[in-house]
Amino acid sequence: MRPEERRSATADGIASGRLPVPWRASVHPGSDVNGRCDGCGDEIGAADYAFEVGLRDDVRLWFHDECFDVYNRSVRRR
C-alpha cells in the first residue's frame, strides 16, 4: 500500500469511529512494531518507522509514520 493510500484508509477509520479518540495517551515514536497498522490495516514492516500509542485500559494502537500523522492531526482538532 502506498503512503497516500495508508493516509486515506486511516482517515476513513477515524471518520467511521473505528479508531478511538484518546483523551489520555502515551506515544512512543520509532517503536519496534510488527503486525498490522491500526490506521490503514497494512502490515508494518521491519524497515517502517512506526508509532505505538497507549490508551487508557491498556489499549495499544500501532501506526505507520504517515498513519500516525493523520490520526494525531484529527485528535488535535477535536
Describe this structure in words.
The structure is a single chain. The protein has 78 residues and is α+β, with helices and mostly antiparallel strands. Strand 4 (50-55) and strand 5 (59-64) form a beta hairpin. The termini are far apart. It has one domain (3-77). The protein is 35% helix and 27% strand.
Write the topology of this structure.
Blueprint: H1 3-16, E1 25-29, E2 35-36, E3 43-44, E4 50-55, E5 59-64, H2 65-77
Helix pairs in contact: 1-2
Summary of the model, kept short:
The chain is α+β, with helices and mostly antiparallel strands. The protein has helices at residues 3-16, 65-77, and strands spanning 25-29, 35-36, 43-44, 50-55, 59-64.
Which sheet architecture does the biggest sheet show?
3 strands, antiparallel
Helix content: 25-40%
Distance between the termini: 28 Å
Broad shape: globular
Gyration radius, rounded: 11 Å
Please tally the β strands and state the result.
Answer: 5
SS-based structural class? alpha+beta
Low-confidence region ranges? none
Number of domains: 1
Specify the number of helices.
2
Strand order of the largest sheet: 1-4-5
